[in-house]
Design goal:
homodimer, 452 residues, alpha/beta, 6-stranded mixed sheet, two-stranded antiparallel ribbon, 15 helices, 11% strand, globular
C-alpha cells in the first residue's frame, strides 16, 4: 500500500492513487466514487482481520483459564475427572462432622499454659494388677516360644498422603515390617487413629503406647517404630536378656546426651518400653510438653534454649524426652541407651553401602556391617516437603526395601535383579525336594538353633 | 474512516479526502503529499496492530502447549516439580535392567499353543514328606493354640498404583487384615513380586500359593485373599473342623456352578487350600490356561463359549477354575463350596446396611447379618478404570473399613464418629481398672470361651 502512494507522488499530477481500478488514468467523478469504495472495502477488511484475531485471542485466553478443552485428549480429561472425583469424596470424608456429637461442634479449645494435661486416669498399681492377670490367664502368657512377647506398634495418619508416592512407601514399609515380625513371632498394631486430639503428630505415639499397654497385659514389651523406618537385617533379634533390669531401650549416645545435651542424642523413631508401672509413670512425665497450642510452643522455646543444635520450632517428643532425661537423671537407671547395633540406623550413611555389605558380610550382625534398621529421617515421603532431594530419598528407600526383601525371598529361591528393581529372578533351580531348602534357609530355623 | 470518504463524496469536487490536514480546503501538491503520508501512517498503524495481535496469539498458543508458566502459582510449580521428579525416578526404577542378566535381555517369548506350561518340578510325595518333616520339627507344629495353622496370603503389584488413591486403600486394606490376623493368630505374607513372568496378573496367585506351600510345611491352610477384600466381622472364625475331609474351601453356589455353569459361580478372591499333594495337583491342572499371550487368549474364548454370562476377554483364574471343576467333576469330592457365611461377600448388597446391622445384630455371625468379608469386586481403586463410579467405591470402602475398625477399637474404648469419618471418639470413660475391659472386650478372650 505504501508503494502506490509513492507512485502517485512521482507522477506529480492531480491523479488520484488507485489500487485496483482497471483504467489507470481517468479522472471522472465516477472514479472518485470507485476509489472511495475501494478504501471502504480495504478498511472493512482490516477491521474484519483485527476482529477475528481478537476473537481468537479471547478463545485462547478462556481456554487457558477454564480448561475449555476441545484440544485436550480424552485420556487427560478422564484422568482429570477421576482425580477431581477422588478429591471431592476425600474432602467430604475429611470434613465429616457428626451433627449429634457435641464434642465435634465445640470450638477446639487449646490447653492454656496453666492447665494441667493428663494422658489418662492415674494408675498406681499396674505391676501388681498385671501380674495377677497373667496368673489368672495362663492362655495368654507374656512369652512366645520362650521369648518375651513383643508388640510392634507403628502407624500413619488416616488421610491419604499429600504426596501420592507417600502411600506407596507406607505400604512397602508395612510389608517390610510384616515380614520381619512374621519371622520373629512379633505381633503388629498399625494405628491410623488419633486417640487424643491434644497430642497429635509425633506426640500421638504417647497416648497410643499407654492405651496398648493397658489393653494388652499379655505383652511384655511395646516397640514403637516409625513408618519411615525399615528393617534391613531380617535375621537379627533384639537381645532382650540384656535389658532384664531396664524398662526402656532407645538408640543414642551417652556423650551426646549428657555432655553435649544434643537434640539428636536419642532417637524416638524406634524404641522399646516394658509394660510396667515405671513406663506409665515416664509417659506421664513425658507428655506435658505435648499438648498442641501455646503449651507446645512455649515448650519448644525451652527445648531450643537448652538443647544443642535444636532449631526453633514447637516441642517434639524426642527433644522433650532428652530434656526430661538430662534434667531428671533419676530416670536413667532404667533406660538403656543402646548403640551396639542399629535399633535406629540413620539412612544417609548406610544406603550406599548395601552392595558392599552383601559382598563382605551377612545378616544377623545388626550393626554398621549389616544395619538392623534403616531409618529415613527427614525424607517425609508422605508430606510435600522433605529435608532431602526427592530422588535421593525415593531411590534410597527402594534400595533399603529390596535389600531387606532379598533376605525374605531367599527362602523362596528368589532375589531382586538389582537393588532398584521391583523384578525378581531365581537363585535356585526348581527341585522335587523343597524341604532341604526350608531347613537351610528358613530364618526361624537358624534362630532356633542359635538359642538352643 | 468510512465517514470521511462519504464527506469527500458529498463535496463533489476534485478535493482529496483528508483526515488530519489542518487547512481543510487547499489543493496544492503539498496537500497531496501530506494526504499520501497520512494514509501511509494509517496503514502502518494497522500493520502494527495486526502484528501485535498475532504475536499475542502465538504466545498464548505456545503457553498452552509447553506450559510456559509465568502465570502459574509458585505452589503449582512446586507440586508439578515434585510430581515430575517422582515420576522420573519411578520410571527409572520400573525400567531397571540388569546388564549382567541374560534373562533380562532376551525377548520375552510368549508360550505357544503347543508348548506345555508347568508351575514347577513335579512333586508326587508331598504328603509323606511333609508329615515326616512335621514329626522331625516339633518346634514348628501345624497348629496354633489348638487350631490348624493358617497363612493368609495377599498382595499387590510392586509399582505404585495408576490412581494415587489406590495405594492409600491398599494400605488400609492391609491394616484391616493385620488386625484380623493378630486377633486370630494367623500369619500374613504380603507379596509384591512376580514369581512367574508367564502367570502375571490375577494368575500370579497360583505360583505364589504353590511356592508358599512348599516353603512352609508347618502351615496347614493357605488362605488367598484379594487386596480389595476387607474383613468386616472381626469375631467370626472359619469353622475349619467342617472341612476336615476337604482340601479346598471356596465361596460359591452349586446351582450356579453345575446347572447354570455361570462364570461367577465361585469366587477366587478369598479361598483356602490345604497344604497337601491334592492341592499341588489341582494347581497343576488349573495353571495351563494361565500363560499370557496366545494360550491365555485362546483359553479365554473357550471359557466365554462355555460359561454363562462371561464376557469375551482372556482367560482369568476364576473362570478357568469353574470350567475345570465342571468338566472334571472328580475334583469336587474335596472341594467345599461354601455359602453359609460370606467367605467372599459381594460389596454392593452389603455396604449400605452396616448401620442396620449395628442396630440389630452383632459380630460373630459372618453371614448376611454381619458379613465376614466384604469384597470390592470391580472397584479397582489401584487402576484407572473400575466398573463402578469412583465415589460409590471409595465411600463404600471407607464405610467397610470403619465398620471393621470399630470392632477393633472397641477394646481400646473408641469408635469412629461415623462410618465415613476417620476421626474417633471415646465410648468409655478412662478408668483406673482397665483390666476389666480387657476381659470383657478382647475378642480373643471371647473366642477362647467359645471353644472351651
Amino acid at each position: 500500500m505504501g508503494q502506490e502512494g509513492f507512485t502517485a507522488q512521482k507522477r506529480g499530477s492531480s491523479a488520484l492513487p488507485t489500487s485496483t481500478a482497471p483504467n489507470g488514468g481517468s479522472r471522472s467523478g465516477r472514479s472518485l466514487l470507485r476509489g472511495g469504495g475501494n478504501r471502504q472495502i480495504h478498511k472493512t477488511l482490516n477491521n474484519i482481520k483485527i476482529t477475528i484475531l481478537c476473537g481468537l485471542v479471547t478463545i485462547l485466553v478462556l481456554r487457558g483459564t477454564i480448561g475449555f478443552g476441545s484440544l485436550a485428549s480424552d485420556n487427560d480429561l478422564d484422568n482429570q475427572a477421576i482425580i477431581e472425583e477422588t478429591n471431592r469424596i476425600l474432602a467430604e470424608i475429611r470434613s465429616d462432622k457428626d451433627p449429634d456429637d457435641p464434642e465435634d461442634n465445640q470450638d477446639q479449645s487449646l490447653l492454656n499454659l496453666n492447665d494441667t494435661y493428663s494422658l489418662g486416669a492415674k494408675i498406681s498399681n499396674w505391676d501388681e494388677e498385671r501380674s495377677l492377670w497373667l496368673t489368672r490367664n495362663q492362655d495368654f502368657p507374656n512369652t512366645v516360644n520362650g521369648k518375651a512377647r513383643i508388640l510392634l506398634v507403628t502407624g500413619s495418619p488416616p488421610n491419604p498422603c499429600d504426596n501420592a508416592i507417600g502411600d506407596h512407601y507406607l505400604l512397602k514399609s508395612i510389608k517390610n515390617k510384616i515380614d520381619y515380625c512374621r519371622i520373629h513371632g512379633i505381633e503388629i498394631v498399625y494405628n491410623m487413629a488419633h486417640l487424643d486430639k491434644e497430642l497429635a503428630g509425633y506426640w500421638a505415639k504417647l497416648p497410643l503406647i499407654r492405651r496398648l499397654m493397658l489393653s494388652h497385659p499379655e505383652v511384655e514389651w511395646i516397640w514403637w517404630m516409625d513408618s519411615d523406618a525399615l528393617f534391613t537385617d531380617m535375621v537379627f533379634e533384639i537381645p532382650l536378656s540384656k535389658y532384664k533390669d531396664h524398662n526402656m531401650v532407645i538408640h543414642g549416645y551417652p556423650d551426646l546426651l549428657f555432655n553435649q545435651k544434643s537434640w539428636i542424642a536419642l532417637n524416638t523413631g524406634s524404641f522399646l518400653f516394658r509394660n510396667c508401672q515405671w513406663s506409665l509413670d515416664l509417659l506421664d512425665e513425658w507428655a506435658p510438653m505435648g499438648p498442641k497450642g501455646p503449651v507446645r510452643e512455649e515448650a519448644g522455646k525451652i527445648l531450643t534454649a537448652n538443647l544443642k543444635g535444636r532449631p526453633a520450632f514447637e516441642a517434639d517428643d524426642q527433644s522433650a524426652l532428652i530434656y526430661l532425661l538430662i534434667t531428671k537423671t533419676e530416670w536413667m537407671s532404667k533406660v538403656f541407651v543402646e548403640n551396639s547395633y542399629f535399633l535406629h540406623g540413620y539412612w544417609a550413611g548406610l544406603v550406599d553401602r548395601y552392595e558392599e555389605m552383601m559382598e563382605k558380610y551377612h545378616p544377623g550382625l545388626g550393626d554398621e556391617r549389616w544395619p538392623f534398621v534403616t531409618h529415613f529421617v527427614g525424607c517425609k515421603p508422605c508430606g510435600s516437603y522433605g529435608d532431602y532431594p526427592v530422588q535421593r530419598c525415593l531411590s534410597s528407600m527402594e534400595r533399603a526395601f529390596n535389600f531387606a526383601d532379598n533376605q525374605v525371598l531367599k527362602l523362596y529361591g528368589f532375589r531382586h535383579r538389582g537393588l532398584l528393581s521391583p523384578k525378581i529372578k531365581r537363585i535356585r533351580n526348581e527341585t522335587v525336594t523343597p524341604l532341604e531348602y526350608v531347613d537351610q534357609f528358613d530364618i526361624r530355623h537358624s534362630a532356633q538353633e542359635t538359642s538352643n
